Queue: 2 jobs
Job 1
Amino acid sequence: YPNPSDLASTFIILPEAAASKLSLRIFDISRVLVHSSEIILTPDNPVFRLPDLSWLPPGIYVAEVTNGSSIWHSARLVKL
């Protein structure tokens, strides 16, 4: 949220989150990895802010949150 946006201040809400260390990966529409980082979620704070991705060109991106080898959550991001 918000989506579409300039990706300077974007949030993802994962209400089913348990306390865990997860990986965040952002891909462009061609599945080229443009960003990766680790995130930590807690049950009392299931909202996390994406890093500032305003440097990316306009387009469609996919954010994937993984716990190990499986995709736990994915979201489409539209950059204006």
Job 2
Amino acid sequence: MLRLRYVLSTLAVLILAPLLVGMTAAAWVMWDLPPAQGERIRGPHELVGVQSGGAYVWIVPTQGGVVLIDAGLDPQAAAVRREIDGRPVHAILLTHAHGEQIAGLTAFPGVPVYVGEGDEALLRGQAAPRGWLARWFSLLIDQPPAPEILHTVVDRQQLEIDGTTLQALSAPGHTAGSVVWLWEDVLMTGGAVLASAPLRVLPPALSDDPEQAGESLKALLPVDFDWIADAQTGIVDNARSELHRLVGRRPQPAELSLRAPAPGDAPGPTIEQEGVFVQAPPGIDGTAPELLLLDDGQEWLLADQPDPAHAQLQGRRVVARGEARVYEREPSYPAGLGLRLESLQLADGVAPNLEGLPELRSLEALGAHVRQWGKITGTVAQLEPLALGSTHGEGQMILEDGESVLLSAPLGIPLGSSTTVLARVVEAPGGLRLIVSRLCDRQAPCP
């Protein structure tokens, strides 16, 4: 009898110990994750996210129905079916094949399903997640039957579904076949990156290969998008610059885009415009725009990101040639007028001369010149690099009236003495901020 009790006790420990460990780890992970934004979220372009059993399903509108990004955890997909309200579901595009993305497939029989080619075995129940906590979670979720119509997709494959274009971008790491889906300017990431503020990644125990997942995020840097929508947290704007911050890279121009033209993107005339060329520093919202300052004080946008070939033109008078643009949507760095730049050349023999460029020496003067350029005089009290090896930093300037203002500026500006800089005044969290282009001194006087 004692031996039987010992055997039963040992078996109980062997069975219950992994369960208790898994439950403890799961509770810690759920506590550490950012909270979900709500049961129903509205995104841009009539995109809607609905929580289905605790995981978001993103509903993309099409000409005559919808496309679903993931299927959610609820096998009945009750919240999703209420939201689509009888509209036909033309396809379900999976970001990956974990249980919380595929359990709801049973509610949509006969609907074509698309999955990354590395996750087909996972979707069919022929493989298990490799992350130990993801594997533990998978034991708690019933495996749905394999879809009746199943297609695998490869990196950068475009789908045209009921008049809507979506593109699959391979992002292995969370699972072997993880995919993020690009639609318009929205990147739907599943578990590849969380749409929190700031962006985060999932704990390593939930991913097959965390190191590969990090490399996949770097591969997304050339993609043109504004929003990230995930399966856990919700949706976040200004996400492209946040992704650069997350992976520790300086912003770079986008190379791949599905963005629909805005009303202000109609072709304009090709013109030449003369002014002073300014490269603003990065570090506020991920952009580092090239600007043309005209003699009447207008500011024209030339590019959202810097071209290294233009660095020697900083602060000099130039002639810019390109297609005139009127931006009805504001770029991430506000500007109403600009050029789609074709060429940029030095204006030979003409010294910079901006009439009316104000000299700003007090906080009151800065407040009266928000979104304008000026020559600002004060003492830079602090300037810390944005990151190891960065050429720019963030800090504080004490103005001549004793008030302080935040600034972003190139490193190397002297600290502790009166300094004049060429800068743009912007509104930012915490007050006004100076976006410093360069130092004004005898070698390089400000215009």
